[in-house]
Amino acid sequence: MSSSAAATAAPGPLATSLVLARDVSKTFGARKALDGVSVSVAAGEMVALIGPSGSGKSTLLRSITGLQSIDGGKGTISVFGQTVQKDGRVTGARAARRRLGMIFQQFNLVGRLSLFSNVMLGALGRLPGWRGMLGAWPSADKSRAMQALHRVGVSDYAAQRANTLSGGQQQRGAIARALVQGAEGILADEPVASLDPVSARKVMELLVELNKRDGLGVIVTLHQVDYAIRYCDRVIALKAGKVVYDGPSTGLDTKQLIDIYGPEFEDAFWEAKA
Ligand SMILES: Nc1ncnc2c1ncn2[C@@H]1O[C@H](COP(=O)(O)OP(=O)(O)OP(=O)(O)O)[C@@H](O)[C@H]1O
């Protein structure tokens, strides 16, 4: 483990904590996907979660959102100070998910609905069910949706069915949906993995903007180390379910990259290594 990883092995409570995970393990059969992971992310931080394929990145994000239970025992996870997992049981995850915008590699829009309707779905958590079901959206939410689409640069496509849009347009729509939801934090699981480099950069720039301008905390899993370094101040690296680096992205030197990815570490750079 690097010295910076050791420094964060036992995170203290933060007054404004986006995520506080302590000693989290998750076992699938004989395999430990997470093995005593402790991470603490403050509300306004932007953190990249990196690591080789199968290192536990998605498992950690799914555990944070309560979409998946962690092993029983002493592991705990809280989001915005509220417990999501304790004693191997998921509690309060719905409340946490209302405050978290989730962005996925495959965009997770409803393909046959328009981009606008998809973005409006972000408001569902705040509306009585029947209004959303009937499409009787409050006009304030409708204008909020259009503003969000405008902000992420895809308002021209509002009426177009989501499954006819490019990947980059869909991912920007997913970010607009999180804005309409009023998310206070974003968990993005490989948001650029299915995109071309130009669209990928745009999506990363939007996430940075939400972090820097709106103060949203962002945790983003990335396969591309160069993107983690370029866009995120802090990097947490997992390897075989353990945290092997937690520190400034500028501190990721060749030795650490070899520790994380092995001698083929340059394969983890998407664009040419500087
Ligand atoms: N539902 C599941 N059932 C069994 N094993 C699982 C399940 N989910 C994840 N795993 C295993 O847990 C380990 C961690 O998987 P995870 O998807 O979290 O890794 P990852 O770092 O996100 O990988 P990738 O970068 O390839 O998406 C892997 O060995 C995976 O096979």
UniProtKB/TrEMBL annotation:
Gene3D superfamilies: P-loop containing nucleotide triphosphate hydrolases (3.40.50.300). Residues 19-265 form the ABC transporter domain. SMART domains: AAA. It holds the Pfam family ABC_tran. Keywords: ATP-binding, Cell membrane, Membrane, Nucleotide-binding, Translocase, Transport. GO terms for molecular function: ATP binding. InterPro entries: AAA+_ATPase, ABC_transporter-like_ATP-bd, ABC_transpr_PhnC, MetN_ABC_transporter-like, P-loop_NTPase. NCBIfam families: ABC_phnC. PANTHER family: AMINO ACID IMPORT ATP-BINDING PROTEIN, PHOSPHONATES IMPORT ATP-BINDING PROTEIN PHNC. This is Phosphonate ABC transporter ATP-binding protein. It comes from Brevundimonas aurifodinae. The gene is phnC.
